[in-house]
Amino acid sequence: MNNFNSRPVVLCLSGHDPSGGAGLQADIEALLAQGCHAAPTLTALTVQDTRDVVDFRVLDRAWVLAQAYAVIDDLPIAAVKLGMLGSVEMVDTVVQIMQRLPGVPLVCDPVLRAGGGGALGKDDVGYAMRERLLPIATIATPNLPEARILAELPEGTADECAEKLLPFIEHLLITGGHGEEQQVHNRLYSRQGGHHDFTCARLPGSYHGSGCTLASTLAGRLGHGEPVISAVRSALDYTWRTLRDAEAPGRGQYIPRRLPLDLP
């Protein structure tokens, strides 16, 4: 029997990770777990494993636009999730795509460094994202090293980065976990002055695809119509569970387990 009450559609503009830990595969799995339909639009190809990125290639602008427009013209987009863009030209491509989607929530995951430390774009990509993407995004989800790149504060604290970035964006979630603290602090800042601190227990090991998982889940929750603060809490809780249950199929980082084991 056909079901015409379709799930929220989330347009994902992300790179492909052949290890399956991050990128579009992470987006699809996380969105399935939220009861959403993922519409993956490929922005870049990478050569990487669970340890680090070796190389990447950003797709031609026309191909990305063609993919996105085909989806937009066919499916009702409830939210958009950005992952790896890799070039200033791709930043401008996303700005052009979003002109077709006025009022649609946009979650910007500023993928500027791989989990293993490798760069995923030149330094000017971070500047372009801050100046042109953050102003049209609903929320950005950088980790602290990425927030420092966006804010151009190499040694900045989360509070200092937020002060620099909030003039550009309404909501900013700076994720923790890069220090040695026993409790991981994830800090949500809002331009109107709101500040929420979400803490969770630190888990052992390092993880490949945690940022993609969080941003995709958050886009899914916003696509369901959940308010920002509640959606952030839901996304952080779900992401922590995927890390708690993570597996290590390769020789590098753990991969979050985003889907239950009993799926056929």
UniProtKB/TrEMBL annotation:
EC annotation from Swiss-Prot or TrEMBL: 2.7.1.49
Keywords associated with the record: Kinase, Transferase
Pfam families documented for this protein: Phos_pyr_kin
One GO MF term: hydroxymethylpyrimidine kinase activity
Pathway per the UniProt entry: Cofactor biosynthesis; thiamine diphosphate biosynthesis
InterPro entries: HMP/HMP-P_kinase_dom, PM/HMP-P_kinase-1, Ribokinase-like
Pyridoxamine kinase/Phosphomethylpyrimidine kinase domain: residues covered: 17-253
Protein name: hydroxymethylpyrimidine kinase
Organism: Stutzerimonas tarimensis
Taxonomic placement: Bacteria, Pseudomonadati, Pseudomonadota, Gammaproteobacteria, Pseudomonadales
